[in-house]
Amino acid sequence: MHGDQTIHLGIIGMGRVAVERHIPSIRSIGDSNVNIAAAADAKPGIALQAAEKHGIPHAFEDYRELLAMEEINAVCVCTPTFTHAQIAINALRAGKHVYLEKPATLNEAEMREVLQAANESGKVFIVGSNGLLQSQMQMFKRMIDNKELGEVFNVTITRASTRSAGGKRKTIGGDGISMESASHNVEWALYFLGDPRPVSVTGIGYYKYDNLSIPFERREAGEVDDCAMALIQFDNGSSFLYKAMRSAAAPAEYMVDIQGDMGLIRYDVNKCYKEKSDDCIRIYTQHLDGHMTESKPLIECGKTHAAMYEHFFSCIRECNRSAISGGERSVVVMKVLDALRVSMKDKGRQVALD
């Protein structure tokens, strides 16, 4: 950056994620040279209401008016996924640095278009993979890279949200559990495994909870999957197992297992996020004599988007591309999710990737 070192940020999309996570995270950093200068939301009154509540000077219903503000030099895109690609491209072409919430795009083709626009713009572009920079995730990555688990060959993530009493069960619109959750978790697996090349995807999608067991061919337009199971295999022999359920007849769960041939990391995400407990990690190590030990590292788990925003602002000030979430891995994530949709629609056929 040259001249004015202040980052004047505009937030596009003022729904719950922006208001409850992004704004508090940005302000928790305590950076006096970051100013949330404008808000935009297509739904009448939403941006103005949020701006008045959170002390944001400008509010718009058309995000293009926000992009037209010369003062704004960076934007965060928190709109529904189907709008992400066009908004991000327009923002980059308007000369703004861009933080793009996940799921980044609807498919690989869109992600490639956004990344091309980012490369052509010369601006900082970050996909908001906020989990990757949290303290516990960085600890796991160091352990993997230091071979403390031996050869890491599998990541398994299991997650379920329990159906609330009297809650809405039919899912219309949105991205489906296979997109909403997997966009984060596929990236976690790639990161932990060292960014191997995916070679095949096998997935099964169910419509058992939100959608009252409606068969795929009889779903209404817009209904999305509420349960997904997948196996992704990589060129180095490693794999990722994934299971996610929404509104399930099951207890709430969010577990991450990172399995090596000499050890295991088990991370209880719900215990970290929902219970706000730092006692959420177990590490199992098998020694050469065969016995296994258990350790319980107590660290201050990261629970917000703050670390990724600090990284975003640092990249802007230092005129650097993001080495951890600059969009290239998101192309691979979307390639996997595209194949997952094909496999689910084809009743579990294994889809080979180039």
How would you describe this structure to a colleague?
It is built from eleven helices and 15 strands. With 354 residues, it is α/β, with parallel strands linked by helices. The strands form two sheets. A nine-stranded mixed beta sheet has the order 14-13-12-11-7-10-9-8-15. Strands 3-2-1-4-5-6 form a six-stranded parallel beta sheet, sandwiched between helices. A hairpin with a 4-residue loop joins strand 9 (227-234) and strand 10 (239-248).
List keywords for this structure.
6-stranded parallel β-sheet; 354 residues; 9-stranded mixed β-sheet; alpha/beta
In short:
The chain has 354 residues and is α/β, with parallel strands linked by helices. Helices cover 32% and strands 26% of the residues.
- Beta-strand content: 25-35%
As laid out across the biggest beta sheet, the strand order is 14-13-12-11-7-10-9-8-15
* Secondary structure: number of strands: 15
Low-pLDDT ranges: 168-174
For the biggest sheet, the summary is: 9 strands, mixed
Radius of gyration: 21 Å
CA-CA gap between termini? 40 Å
Oligomer: single chain
Helix share, percent: 25-40%
> Structural class per helix/strand content?
alpha/beta
Helix segment tally: 11
Shape: globular
Order of helices and strands: EHEHEHEHEHEHEHHEEEEEHEEHHE
**Overall average pLDDT:** 90
